[in-house]
Amino acid sequence: MTTPEPRTFQARELNEALALVRREFGPEAIILETRRVPGRALGLLGGSFVQVTAQPPEFSAAPARKRSTSAVSKPSRRAVGETVEEGDRYEPLARAIRRRPAVAVPAQAPHRKAGLARFARMRRLLLANMVPREICEGWLSKLAHRRPGSTPAAQRTALAAIVAESLGEPVPLAWPGTRVAAFIGPSGVGKSTTIAKLATRAVLFEDRRVAIVTLDDERPGGTALVAAYARALDVPCVSVRGAGTLSRALRSVRDRDLVLLDTPGIRPRDEGAVVELSQVLTQAGEAITRHLCFAASTRQQELDRLLATCAALGPDAALVTKLDEAIAIGTLFAAPVEHDLALSFVTTGPEVPDDIAPANARDLANALIGETST
Q1: Which pLDDT tens digit goes with each residue over 109-122?
Q2: What is the rounded CA–CA span in Å between residue 347 and residue 369?
Q3: Span 180-367 CATH architecture
Q4: Are 278 and 307 in contact (CB under 8 A)?
């Protein structure tokens, strides 16, 4: 049997396009790509359209079409019915955690008795995952007060609850009553890709009116990526320099209910650039929610230095990127526990728009506590 070519369906809204897919291929059809295109690209006037590429479920093993940065794609091949569920607006962080290799916990030395330290295994687990020692001892002290059972499973369950409590609720993309979210942090941590993910989800799944503003004129690649997704989503993308131009840019997109602001990469100990950026954000003319971005694999010393350097920016939340690339993730817990900086989102891979999720405390605790023995 000849494998049919994937078909493309177009409609004003995502749900309408998916209804066409279901009508043609049934509820188990495989989504290969989802993108929003301007009406003029289809030979029509005004507005924009959602374009969905799909194929029948029996041919799900066929290779996906080649992706490009100009197409806003849904890379995971899921059934149409799953795509429109409310809970599917963000891929569950738990799914990414299940794909992570567990951190191996060193076996206890033969000459030591297991009873010498009741929580010795939990301590080794946390330290192997690069949890700062002060945080580790604080969690174990709370664990002792809760008097969990003596089995490793009971101790892990109790410890996971303590870890989750230390994280609290994730910070929203923008505080209530505000519409601008800025993404600050070192170069190379994925700020531009994170903005592309959030913008795509906000437009396609939340029906929000989005604009992108970039101050990141030092990395043409990052600016080009954001601009490419802005074109695909048919949303404004404005590049500016300085406080005055940022204020004017925000006024020019005052009809938008969400503005994502990309910023230049911060160099270690470049306090002058940080002060300048702080002044630009402060003089922007409206409140800005500030997300400090850093990779999950960042070492504690580097994170402490970054947080000290960025203190003048007054970050509202920490956004952790590249969780999928980190073997040990204990350092990320230092931001909320030691520096009182709550988490907002976690990115779990390079795919736009799937690989991002709110920083769910229970899922992150499970990612930390999961273990294998050696």
Answers
A1: 443 444 335 788 88
A2: 19
A3: 3-Layer(aba) Sandwich (3.40)
A4: no
